[in-house]
Amino acid sequence: MAYLELQNLHRDFGTVxxxxxxxxxxxxxxxxxxxxxxxCGKTTALRLVAGFDRPNAGAIVVDGKDMTRVxxxxxxxxxxxxxxxxxxxxxxxxNVGFGLRIRxxxxxxxxxxxxxxxxxxxxxxxxxxxPHQLSGGMQQRVALARxxxxxxxxxxxxxxxSALDAKVRVQLREEIRRIxxxxxxxxxxxxxxxxxxxxxxxxxxVMYGGRIEQMGSPAEMYSAPATPFVAEFIGTMNRLxxxxxxxxxxxxxxxxxxxxxxxxxxxxxxLVLVRPETVIVDRVDGGxxxxxxxxxxxxQTFLGPVTRLKILGEGVDVIADVxxxxxxxxxxxxxxxxxxxxxxxxxxxxxxxPLPEIAEEPAPAGR
Length: 367
Prior knowledge:
alpha+beta; 2 domains; 20 strands; 34% strand; elongated
């Protein structure tokens, strides 16, 4: 049964459609990440749930109650912002207890709750420090404890880790997930970082142009993208345009035997999607095997245990992730055969509309 529902939400800013009818159902205690590029509408959705803005149409329902017109201070939502937003003249302890104090909680009850939360976020030793005496990661932990202090119905986090360095981001996202699971709190998390979303969420909703392109588990979003945009945004993907022919898909002058194309009429324009880690690369040795594209290694990118190869040839543009030890034998300039396993490819039909260019996606006012 849905605990948090966003029902056909619309929000316009002048001529800009920030949200164009999004629908979300989230069960109690579940963790959903809204993932997408700047300007896709994810923060607008979060602000509507928090009550900082109102939709032009649609409804927000929490535990069966319509909250759409309820003021923010009556919604019992805990909010964690990107920029911490701590009171600089208050200690960590006073920041965490602020929401309890304005709700009239007794001093003794406040102190017990604050101490418990500071321990929960690993800052039991830092209650008397002021924000300027804390690192960025510690400040964000205080902000998280402050949001949790009021025992909110829903926890809302707006890119809370984007201002932190990479190592602290990983540590803190794991802490957020640990705390969320421990408390069983329904959580809506906004991020543009796909690794972050996939690593801590029960569900991920990829947004583009004010709409939800696809929503599912992290594994579903990675292995079975439903649209070209999701395929490009979640992980790295080879996108091979082709035409359905007898036996598969014609691309770069050869026929790729792709299991997922069965049943589609000949002549259909399709996009064959192949993850780099599934591509098998070897030096060219005699005739080309089935499902093999031939080209030259033009770049190598070291990624630790694997190295990413970019392979170019006549009509061929493929990236492949191979074990770093193997990549040593395939230096730049090597002519290679890149084999695409038929069972690992996904096929989507192409419309006449151009594929979205993520890097150039605008950021309209109001997000």
